[in-house]
Amino acid sequence: MRKPIGVYVLLYSLIAFTVILGKVISAGARDLGQIPTVSVPTVTSSPVGSIAIVTREYDQVNVRGGPGAEYPLVGVLIAGQQVPAMGRSAGGLWIQIAYPGGPGGVAWVYSPLVEIKGTLPIVEPPPTPTPRTTPTVDPTLAAQFIIEIPPTHLPTFTAPPPLSIPTFPPEQTFTSTGRVPMGLIIVGLGVIGLFGMVISLLRGR
Q1: Which of 51, 60, 151, 183 is deepest in the core (most CB within 10 A)?
Q2: How far is Cα of residue 153 from the mean position of the Cα atoms in its chain?
Q3: How much is the pLDDT for 135?
Q4: How far apart are CA 73 and CA 176, in angstroms?
């Protein structure tokens, strides 16, 4: 009676598995034999350096390229932000921090605006930036845009002609010497007329 082929396949599979398992166990034994008996030193990380923390009194503080307001502004830090502190200025008023946006990856903040944890060495500040040149105006070019207004003559004042005041001759008064006053003549004529009227009335009777 012939045995089925499946039995032989199963038998060979068990033999192969046993051989492979033996090789794995022997390799693991060799590795275990190489474990050192002495203690292995533990690698510890270096302690964190000094840090600068922006105080909560300010929403943000300016970050400059050097220890002074004359240096250019390179960025800002927000309230509560922590950055590595690398050094301080000679007077201690400015703190050098690690800042990617600054020249050489460093920048400076005003020390009263941050809280420092740790000790900081005095570092050499960067050179003071050259002042900006004041633009000058070319006088020849500026003269082309200057408009000269000619002076205007004020009207001359002509004095009015003198005011002529008419003069009247003095009133003539009649004197008794040489001439009879006109009033006396009138009175005389009136008396004569009255006398004539009286005579006419008497004749009429």
Answers
A1: 51
A2: 46
A3: 66
A4: 120
Query: HEC states along the chain?
Result: CCCCHHHHHHHHHHHHHHHHHHHHHHHHHHHHHCCCCCCCCCCCCCCCCCEEEECCCCCEEEEECCCCCCCCEEEEEECCCEEEEEEECCCCCEEEEECCCCHHHEEEEEHHHEEEECCCCECCCCCCCCCCCCCCCCHHHHHCCCCCCCCCCCCCCCCCCCCCCCCCCCCCCCCCCCCCCHHHHHHHHHHHHHHHHHHHHHHHC
Beta-carbon count within 10 A of 76 CB? 14
- Report the distance separating Cα 114 and Cα 88, nearest Å: 12
- 11: tokens are 């038998």
**Degrees, nearest 5: CA angle 102-103-104:** 110
Residue appearing with tokens 């460093």? 106
Asked whether 45 and 113 are in contact (CB, 8 A), the reply is no
In sequence order, the β-bridge partners of residue 77 are 61
Q: Report residue 118: phi and psi, to 5°.
A: 115, 175
pLDDT digits (tens, 9 = 90+) for 68-118: 999 999 999 999 999 999 999 998 999 999 999 889 999 999 999 999 999
Q: How far apart are CA 42 and CA 133, in angstroms?
A: 60
